Amino acid sequence: MLALTRSEPAPHARVIHRLWLLFAQAVTVMLAAWLLVAALRPDLLPAPWPAARGEASSAATAIAPSARPPAGEAPPAVGAASYAEAAARAMPAVVNLYTTAAPARRERNPLLDDPIFRFFFGDAPPGGAPHGRSPARPSSLGSGVILDARGHIVTNAHVLEAAEKVEVALADGRRAAARIVGADPETDLAVIRIDLPELPAITLGSAETLRVGDVVLAIGNPFGVGQTVTMGIVSALGRNRLGATTFENYVQTDAAINPGNSGGALIDGQGRLVGINTLIFSRSGGSQGIGFAIPSATVRQVVDQLIEHGRVVRGWLGVETQDLTAALAESFGLQGARGVLVAGVVKGSPAADGGLRAGDVVLSVAGRPISGSRELLDTVAALKPGQAVEVNLLRDRRETRLTVRVGTRPAPRRG
Asked: Is there a catalytic annotation at residue 188?
């Protein structure tokens, strides 16, 4: 008959059991000590190894003990980017402009010619100006950008509007009177020149490489407070149809642009000029995050002509146009709304001499397809006056080719 009895563990099993208990207690104590140090003195712990070769661990961005700020100061933001170097490259080339408008002519009061009045007050009334002129209007503020060591400065044409005197204040404290080289109201660009040695010139960038979301900086003199840098991103490219100028192809940005920033620089993250700040969309007169800059490609093209000719020479056909709607395109037998409708032809213009008529639909000019009025305007303006070009058009539902000699675009009327 078998009896069940409780067996005693072997001597070696008891030893192993005791060693296991000691090991577990030691691990518990060490873990508690590590947690205590991690909570109170994390700087005493070694940094963990990177997760993979050539890859920084999450702790690699932590602030080193030797670089920790003094007690009471906030640590710098981890991973924060700085554009101080880009701003430092461009800021010396951005200047402040002070313009004084010519005094307005006004009717002379007959009382001024009265002998008794002149006996007491002389030729001019107290606080007035002689010869029937009102005092010069106060100076207006704007910005400009130095383009070369010869002293050429680009700004907005509206900054110089009706200006009699222009004074330039450099970032280094120097001041100089400027003369107007030329202005182009159709793009709102102008060039002035100063004579000073060792002028800092900005580096031109390419607005064609900009992408929506790229960081840009706006530099100017908003409200006359002094040179200011604001940051934003490229919000949109190729903005037009704003009705501000004839030729529009703006870079839109949410960098703060305010009155006084006009003519200032829009730069990329490397400090290169990608645009000239010119417009803001605002209901209050201040920045609402919608600003517009003239791209550097347009600036380069206009400035070169202003320096060489004092004006911008553009091609011209002399037609009034209308964009095609889907209904109009269908009535002309077009597949899609391609081309632009000629609504009128200026008498004696190159278009009239070349045989264009109202009702024609222009499909291409000089081999370039035309999809709307804006594209036709830009295409013709880029042509050289005197150049003979082929115009492909639709007339009476048949394609026709005409040769037209491009004319010179008339200067815009002022006022």
From this structure: yes
